[in-house]
């Protein structure tokens, strides 16, 4: 998301109407429903986390402890357990 100066993109009449509600403040204008993207759609992060979570589950299934996995992946033991639980539900 980038900031735009209102005077560069909006007609003066609309700026004056908005100023009746917030004078000099920041406002967020949400995307139209048709243009919304789901989390991770623009990057590879979602795919990376999916692969990482599968690795964690496979290592856990092979006998690695939650404590060791948390140290290997720099995650809390609680996060590792959550990932394992989620992966079990996908099977």
From TrEMBL:
It comes from the Bacteria. Residues 11-88 form the Mor transcription activator domain. Pfam families: Mor. InterPro entries: c-mor_Regulatory_Protein (IPR052411), Homeodomain-like_sf (IPR009057), Mor_transcription_activator (IPR014875), YraL-like (IPR049739). This is Mor transcription activator family.
